[in-house]
Specification:
homohexamer, five-stranded mixed sheet, glycosyltransferase (chains A, B, C, D, E, F), transferase (chains A, B, C, D, E, F)
Chain lengths: 320, 320, 320, 320, 320, 320
């Protein structure tokens, strides 16, 4: 498996840079889609699998499986994932969006925003990206951006999430919760708040976990989104955070500057302008590479690259 | 009279497709204009006439007559329509915008949004697009998007409209009203509500009648706009509805998917980004063609094409 | 018929004074009622009849007939008015509230706030207060406080109303509309706006027609409500207006000071504190007396008295 | 143990009636208190114990233990409950309010609204009302009105709660959640929504569980609060619901009318006018009596009485 | 001169207690008045003079002079103060409300809320309470609650104020500004912010200077108002603060608990329920007495008493 | 010194035209910058100096000095201006943005938006653009867009500003204030309000002073911004005003049409779309030229040109 990669342009002074052929997935990549964005990928077999948010032309939200050999060219199923009940009591939701995927122990776990009289965190799993099972939702509404850790922490599953309201939530902190069994959740801990306007305005309105964290020597490295409420609407940018290895609800470092902010036309124009929304990363620790997948303008999927060591270094040196 | 037309591109799978030379009317098509959009056209003599919303550079709203031989290249008068009083009691409004035009019996009726201590529906008529007469407004404020049917229904004039409030109305249903004389209105019937977010999010905030309906074998076919309230503002898209021939306040079918959504730069950028707002159509029933006129981004006028039979078929098969 | 009356207390310097035994109708005057308020009365036979807003204990709104010999002690039916369709096309509403009653020519007309996907003006009539007929609603939503004139004006029925929105409307002007037949309405005229905060703050947020106007030598005399939006909610007070006899949409005089403002415990405490809401008056022109019926705190019905000549004089001398 | 009781007045036709000596606890019952309200009681030893919400004169919210022999005259501790950590990981909250108390198996469990960067549901227990232990909070913020069932359901603890936002929440449904161990929670089920405005307006804005349910032959009987948003603020009234014995997240009946609405001066005047907020009940099934404890106007504690059989009957016959 | 006084009731444990005959000024104390509240008094000749906010029955706001021998029984002029221009450039305002009065050097200075396209701080003076002069307003809009110090600080006039917005301001801090000449103002210093909700909720929304500070051995003692935004509107209570003698923009102590909160019917009922708004105090340092004048429910004037030494002690011991 | 210049294109009929190579300063012109916009320039030595708003990648706002030989190619310092205290009492603010620069008598004065518990007007000066001194802020919060006149008026400094609130202010008028010493400010005069929606909608929400006025034969000529609140956010355009020479708070003329409105991609796309925000002009009275500097889309700096005589003529002929 080789993750997608492109070297940094010589004129670029930033630690993260865009793929020159962005967006890698167009809004009409499947016949029914209005837009494809905020999607997650993982290594799978010799290549990659992913779970994609495709809104159809009625702007109904659902998640779809897809596959790729190189991580750049994707074949997305034309029908949404058809979950089977993992459990007798499973509740079928009103809609599904913003998936994340992570391999833990023996299977691929998927989390997403699930409609249950308002948004909350749906959980499901697959072994093969063909057959999918839906479990109990993790929390009461209203919640969004549930992101699992790729291994148990002190014997328990760990999930970040962002308690929300039932609209265009104008606030938002990241919390951690733990579970012995992926069914019952507790030990809720507050992790991160938005920054003060005067310290880091791009993340002063709300923040939410983005990609599945991966372990580095410095701790868990995660990409997250931050939002500022301008007089012309919300603007979403991306930062990074380093979490304590043993107690990942402890944030050790977190970028005061953003790593990426909307500045290309495909990030500035679309169904919701000025949005960069990371949902996954692929990393090659040995080659010191990471490829970040993000939704752009709630319309397309794009990728960006970075050197893990540089990002860690930057996060430490520019911590809020 | 031949309506404007361009065949569907081979790569297009949609039932409605854009004109490749859009926008057909630029924002500065007349010297005083800041923007020209949300305008209506009808067949007239050998060619076409139209009533155009031109906001001037003080962003005052008014409506202007214009003429075209081919429906694409338009000559718009440099001065707004100067209405004469049709009636002693006529009230002169504060502003005029978003006109529709329809021929009934012996004359061209024009409806528009009329300022009368808030927006309501203005009514006027012309025989020749040279001399214009203004009648009593149809309703009390607050109302927008008044669209007349092209013939009397059970002996009465019929008008759709959308009761509103005095600002950026965050709700909106379509109602029908009837009148024996174009002066007094009653028999108000509720026609269509916004869709549920989970069923058809593009039209979940408000909807409004767009083009003048025309009669097909399936019933009256109308294009309407639907709005979703995103965290970055309202987005306007277009759908179609089929209304009962005898009782047109009965909606028989209505598209769950949109037919057009803002995705070209001239629809995504402008005075109000992400707006597609249909106000008229030209149809050739024998050739099975329809050409839809819509305002784009509250800045310019664009057109799109479709086969009537395909649109009817699509509307029936994809009905909400 | 003698209208209810009590002489002015010697210590009172105001032109309108309260009945000492207020409220005349308690919130639980019928077994099912949560509250009885905003109700209308007329002379009927030897005594009086009325239409009462009684919200039941589920807080569903409906209107009930009632009778009284003296105008003070009322017997209200325990069941709401059961309207028959006056017309084949009549639409049954979601709820009914805030009735007004007026005798025109041969029958008693009732107007009220009718639920039709939002509030609008319902119309019905009765000859005997036993059998009731419901007609077409007058207007499109959203509207409240429809008040008819007691005779035709220039051959047409005349109704005041207040265009509203679908919530706790924070604005509101009074308009006049005319109809040849009580079915189709038009010739809408703007009558009165809220006052400037600095000129007459008690009526600076919205105003609405209250009682049915009656003709005096000075013109039509009407009591209306005005609202101020304080930091602790809306406060409703009462003023008077004199309208032109021939063209009653012309307001000749209108009190800058209120005539009554909430200051008794039954006006300050209740389901909606600080509300005085007039819906009817009984007048004896020969005796120069008027008795005003008003809802207090959205909970009970109260009355107040005045000398017509004094009120006219006051209105002229203290006009806005 | 005899629960507080007073027979129904002969003039009363309602199923629930107030104690004539209300309020039973004044706002200044302890020296530091600004107000004492929204409090819970249980049988304890020969008499009763309770947990009281006392806001001090800095309007800081905390909960206090208290004792009574007759359930009417209470002695409340002058210092708030000093919780010990039940668990190493326990988080100390910012504030505590609106407690409920219930005996399950071997101890008295207390739930309350706990400040944890926003309101959520705190959990603690005591064996003796002298020594108290605080556990992990049940849920992520934002949540209020957590009410436990008095026994395990299918081997699990069951708790109702109302997901909220971080302000004066203008919406609110009741959900059920289950836990094997009082620490991790899942199996979230939607139970009850606010009613439609036209069906039962007193509960059309939000609802929340009130008293601890108790088992009757008809199922679990619970008193809950419902809220309407008037133009002068929120008004809180009380209804009852009957829940399925085996699957208590299934609501079998629920009153369309309220049982109590603010109509006494101590309910209409206070720190937050027009509030009736039930938090507990004492019942004597053999004597067919229930005594409901409720906070009035966010200022004092009051009680009301009813016959259990009558309430069940009323709830069934007047179900929404 | 003896200030109004009544000894503390034996049952009272508070440092401030109300006058048993409150309110001392009724809403209709002059013929034109709707309400009289938020008013200021000073010793004058052998007795007292005051400036009173009297809203008339058109709810127009203005300020009136008044006189009293004992500080309790007041004779208020029936006409508002008629200011002469102190200066050629003086701007006449739209309205006047919430006056404060203070004697500095040779004259009585009056400050108030002045309408100048929005509220700001008006300034005037009198030598005799007969002839009044209006100066330039102190600040740009939007501002309220301007309170002068009774002597110059470091050679300059000193004024506290609360920057506001043009509506029911939902925020508000107290600032100090200085002026060499009562005409030009600068050296703006931030003094006090609202408290955190969890520390002192009664003053968590906004605060504003109340009475003119007077010098004690502990520093300047001032009474101020604090506001909490409940779901039923703003509630205004009163606290005290001790300011540094030399640099009075330095707040040394400030009560975490309130001194007075609305709990009498005349404070809970009125044009704006639940308001206590102090605007003045009279003090007798030798007798260790202070009498506080406050507006109640935006309707009447009331007074309360305290021992200066006890208040200072309480403020120090219960400081935020 | 020659100001930047480009002749009007032949196809242009407007009085102001854009530079063809806009934007002249890119968002990443210095390594740390996220965006550079809303900046001011003045003639300095043989060329030009400027003060630039550069938001860094944490979106912290600060102002930076820069220099240019031709007014088009700028070298901006990589570190923000490091102000020294001009005065012992100077308060250091939370942030700095939107600078203006003007030479008066012997030095360059800089004004900007200064964070002091909310935005207000900061004042500083320099003699050489190397050493900078910060003075007392001019006003209490909340204020923005403070613009000084280039010479004293009647012996006093004169500054325009726009009183604001602490968020995305939805209102805003321009006021004038005067000061004898740049420290204490008074004599506040209202200058200009937003226009009525129906008269000039582009400036109907708020307006603010833009460039430093310069004296012409017609009076002071200033460019200002006007804002309309669309359903997709605020749109900022530019107009001109002519102020009375002697009493510059008297507005003699003011353009009803805008001079520039967002219509290029760099004005329509960026951190805040649809913004044109003028902060400075360079003029050559002899050559009848003016070059206007404006921020575009809160992201970059652009320039536009005009003939002074034409602008004056246009302003007079098209005055509101």
């Amino acid at each position: 498996m080789k993750i997608p990669w492109q070297e940094k342009p010589q004129t670029c002074n930033d630690v993260v840079w865009r793929y020159t052929e962005n967006p890698i997935i167009q809004r009409d990549a499947i016949p029914s889609s209005n837009s494809i964005f905020n999607s997650a990928v993982v290594p799978f077999n010799e290549g990659f699998a992913g779970v994609f948010r495709c809104d159809n032309k009625a702007v109904q939200m659902n998640i779809f499986a897809g596959f790729s050999e190189d991580g750049i060219n994707w074949k997305i199923n034309e029908n949404p994932i058809d979950f089977k009940a993992a459990d007798e009591g499973q509740v079928i939701g009103d809609y599904k969006y913003d998936p994340r995927v992570v391999f833990i122990e023996d299977r691929y776990w998927i989390t997403w925003c699930e409609g249950h009289n308002g948004p909350t965190i749906g959980i499901g799993y697959t072994f093969d990206f063909i057959e999918f099972f839906q479990c109990e939702s993790a929390f009461l509404p209203f919640n969004r951006n549930g992101v699992l850790f790729p291994k148990k922490i002190n014997g328990k599953y760990a999930m970040m999430s962002r308690p929300s309201d039932n609209g265009h939530t104008p606030f938002g902190d990241i919390y951690m919760s733990y579970s012995p069994d992926m069914k019952y959740w507790g030990e809720h801990r507050h992790m991160m708040s938005p920054a003060d306007f005067k310290d880091s305005a791009w993340q002063c309105t709300k923040i939410g976990a983005g990609s599945v964290p991966f372990l580095t020597e410095a701790g868990w490295l995660m990409f997250y989104h931050g939002v500022i409420n301008t007089c012309n609407g919300f603007r979403y940018a991306m930062g990074s955070a380093i979490l304590d290895e043993e107690n990942p609800h402890i944030v050790k470092y977190r970028t005061q500057p953003y790593l990426l902010t909307p500045s290309e036309l495909y990030e500035q124009n679309g169904d919701v302008p000025n949005v960069i929304f990371p949902c996954a990363s692929l990393q090659d620790l040995q080659e010191d590479k990471v490829t970040i997948f993000y939704g752009a303008a709630d319309t397309v999927v794009a990728i960006a690259f970075g050197r893990i060591s540089e990002i860690i270094d930057f996060t430490k040196k520019n911590s809020l």
